[in-house]
Amino acid sequence: MSIESLGHLESKLQNLIDKLELTRMELEELRAANTRMEQENAELKQELGSWGERVGALLGKLDNVSEDVAVEEEPAYEA
């Protein structure tokens, strides 16, 4: 193998190593971003559940008020 061929091979190997290092850095960044998104997703799910409970409670109160109004509006029948 000639010196020129070895130099060419060395250059290709260095390019490959550089690309692998960049890919590894990108992967680490993507994993960190994924972790942040999973945490944010969990927080949003918890917040959504909390809002659902609040809406359910308000609807329950609204039903109670509607029932109270319906009872008050019923005409009293006397025999």
TrEMBL record:
TM regions (residue ranges): none
Native species: Endozoicomonas montiporae
Keywords: Cell cycle, Cell division, Coiled coil, Septation
Signal sequence extent: none
Protein name: Cell division protein ZapB
Gene3D superfamilies: 1.20.5.340
Stretches of the chain forming a coiled coil according to its record: 6-54
GO biological process, one term: division septum assembly
InterPro entries, per database record: Cell_div_ZapB
GO cellular component entries: cytoplasm
